[in-house]
Design goal:
This protein has helices at residues 17-34, 49-61, 112-123, and strands at residues 12-15, 40-45, 67-73, 88-90, 100-108, 128-136, 149-153, 159-160, 176-178. It has 182 residues and is α/β, with parallel strands linked by helices. Helix 3 (112-123) links the parallel strand 5 (100-108) and strand 6 (128-136). Bound molecules: inosinic acid and magnesium ion.
Length: 182
């Protein structure tokens, strides 16, 4: 399904680049206060790559020494019609056994993706697994899971930008926005 290309100017800003930057800095404070300095950050691809790259630099300012790894999980699309089945498309590079892990994702919605990721890391014998998300939609949970660190709680609207996509587009936007035609 290829959507009609909507121009950038048509996208309403929901959270500005400046607000995101301020919140990423304060999230790094929260994370640095709660977690050990020697941390493995696992970004869920593809949506988390922008948030993760800003977050690790903010964590550097707080004296943390995170290592960075990624895992690509199958996505079931924006419609909530999934069977809930999630698979590993590209696995982690490193061994997480005995390590303190922080999973980073763009958004917590149904909770299926993060539940799968957390279980995967616990099966791999991580010492601890915490979760940081830039966004969450509280009303949309299908399984009981909470993130330990949440940037912004938003209402139930489909959002794009700062790594989040609509059919692969708009990940490059420096802000979180809403596509008016959706
Ligand atoms: P969950 O398994 O439903 O919590 O799904 C989270 C995943 O769905 C995220 O990692 C995103 O890739 C995608 N997603 C959920 N809501 C949105 C949205 O509003 N815009 C773009 N992607 C979304
Ligand atoms: Mg995602």
């Amino acid at each position: 399904m290829t959507p009609t290309r909507v121009e950038k100017k048509d996208i309403q800003v929901l959270i500005s680049a400046q607000k995101i930057a301020e919140r990423v800095t304060s999230l790094a404070d929260e994370i640095a206060a709660a977690l050990p300095k020697d941390l493995v950050i696992v970004g869920l691809l593809r949506g988390s790559f922008v948030f993760a790259s800003d977050l690790i630099r903010a964590l550097h300012e707080k004296d943390l020494r995170p290592q960075m790894d990624f895992v690509t999980l199958s996505s079931y699309g924006a419609r909530a019609t999934s069977s809930g089945e999630i698979r590993v498309i590209r696995d982690l590079t490193d061994d997480v056994e005995g390590r303190d892990v922080l999973i980073v994702d763009d958004i917590l919605e149904s909770g299926l993706t993060l539940t799968f990721a957390r279980n995967l890391l616990m099966e791999r014998k991580a010492k601890s697994v915490k979760i940081a998300v830039l966004l969450e939609k509280p009303g949309k949970r299908r399984v009981k899971i909470d993130a330990d660190f949440v940037g912004f709680s938003i209402e139930d609207k489909f959002v794009v930008g700062y790594g989040l996509d609509y059919a692969g587009y708009y990940r490059e936007l420096p802000f979180i926005g809403v596509v008016p035609t959706l």
